[in-house]
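Hi L.,

As promised, histidine kinase:
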Amino acid sequence: MPALLTADVSPAERHARRSPRDWAVDVAAFLIAIVFGILGFVEVVQVDGFTWLRIVDLAVGASACVALWWRRRWPVHLAVIMTVAGLFSPATSGALVVMIFTVAVHRRFPVVAGIAAANILGAALYFRIYPSPDMSWPASMVFIALFTVAIVAWGMFVRARRQLVISLRERARQAESEAHLRVEQARHRERERIAREMHDVLAHRLSLLSVHANALEYRPDAPPEDLARVSGVIRESAHQALQDLREVIGVLRTPAQRADGAGQPALEELTSLVTESTQAGMDVTVVDTRTDEGDPPPLVDRCAYRLIQEGLTNARKHAPGTAVTISLGGGPGEGLRVSVHNAPLRRHVADGSIPGAGTGLVGLRERVDLAGGLLSHRSLPDGGFTLSAELPWPR
């Protein structure tokens, strides 16, 4: 019965596109209205007989039943009209019951309460004009009031259930949208991670290649021994760059390694990094004043290594031939202090200098932020440059 009398939340749209279920509901509502209307009509005819007023009653009742076709579009308007018609037309009672239920399904409680109260008052006047042969006027009013309240409660229950279903569907759609958004964000973060790893690894190696290639370009008359040595360094650097690239791709493809950072360099490889830079002609000095109380957390350790690597790469690009000082300090409970300082450039950089994309410091800042540290970089008054970070190192 509830399914047969329900109406959709969007009446205008459902009226324009009536589904097979809507047809079944409308037919059921029409039949219910006819049954209730005939019962009311027969009861009055048994008391007053069949007069010309009953012919009008039948016509009004039939019109009310046909009007149920538009009950979804104009529920309140039709309910008001049928309430007025019900004052003298018992044949309208069935259609009026359907309209009260429809209003309860589609409108808020104040409107529903107004329609219900109007019908109860109308019924009070009707039973004064046409008393029931089986019940007294007070008993008739109690029955009508309880029946109306039951119809309204039924309709409000259907309305609440529909709103709950709509809310759950909306939450499901929202959850699905959020899931898609999280997937897109994860993809974006992965792309950024790949770009950052590629920059950190390849920029250092390729800058070494560029330095040695420049040496060959500007010293074509160098002794064969020097040319062979530089060519060997270039070959070794290229091989190492390919190896680093394979390691980075392997780390990015393996979830377990992505989680624990396996395969990524740390400060224990600082000596190798400094040696490579020294072989490329850089003057690098390491000042390590850390307390000898173990290693910092892995995330901080890798972040410090990447900062030093980025500092050396930038010095090689923008200040070739200058002295570079790497400083490490701090300890557990104090934090880890890392800085890379290059002296001012004393000569003009050739046009064939190593190009830069300008994204290294951006990616490095993101690394430091993720590690919970603070990155700073500044040009000094004498023309030098300092890149430094304060990283957490708990006890």
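Residues 1-16, 254-260 have pLDDT under 50 and may be disordered.

Thanks again for sending the construct details.

K.
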